[in-house]
């Protein structure tokens, strides 16, 4: 059974952009802008350049690496339950859940819960 396109897109984004630091791939993996949805109705539109800077800061300054715990997807949306470790920040461990929608083959919208300390049990 093959994986849905949205899952492949998110996995490649996480592995190649976040964990391997190939920031330029944001231009082909993310919509411009990508819309981040947070609690209390807050949304943030990030251009490609803003998204690159956001990810670059996490990788280069904090040593962020992300591992997926659970991924569920169809062709137009993907949910990721993940763990994050910040190796340059006292090995701080965080976890979260993000839901993405895909438009025209790119991650376009992201809803995420506030991050929590620790890794998922």
SSE order and pairing:
Layout: H1 5-19, H2 26-29, E1 30-37, E2 43-46, H3 48-62, E3 64-73, E4 77-86, E5 92-103, E6 106-112, E7 116-117
Parallel strand pairs: 1-6
Antiparallel strand pairs: 1-2, 3-4, 4-5, 5-6, 5-7
Description:
There is one protein chain. With 121 residues, this protein is α+β, with helices and mostly antiparallel strands. The chain has helices at residues 5-19, 26-29, 48-62; strands spanning 30-37, 43-46, 64-73, 77-86, 92-103, 106-112, 116-117. It contains three helices and seven strands. It has a single domain, classed as Nuclear Transport Factor 2, Chain: A (Roll). A hairpin with a 3-residue loop joins strand 3 (64-73) and strand 4. The longest helix has 15 residues, at 5-19.
Compact summary:
By secondary structure, this protein is α+β, with helices and mostly antiparallel strands. Helix content is 28%, strand content 44%.
């Amino acid at each position: 059974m093959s994986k849905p396109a949205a899952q492949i897109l998110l996995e490649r984004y996480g592995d190649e952009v976040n964990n391997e630091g190939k920031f330029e791939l944001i231009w082909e993996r993310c919509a411009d802008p990508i819309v981040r949805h947070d609690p209390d109705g807050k949304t943030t539109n990030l251009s490609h350049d803003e998204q690159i800077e956001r990810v670059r800061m996490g990788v280069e300054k904090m040593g962020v690496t992300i591992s997926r715990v659970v991924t569920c997807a169809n062709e137009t949306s993907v949910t990721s339950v993940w763990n994050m470790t910040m190796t340059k920040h006292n090995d701080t461990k965080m976890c979260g859940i993000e839901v993405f929608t895909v438009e025209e083959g790119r991650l376009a919208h992201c809803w995420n819960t506030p991050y929590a300390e620790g890794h998922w049990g």
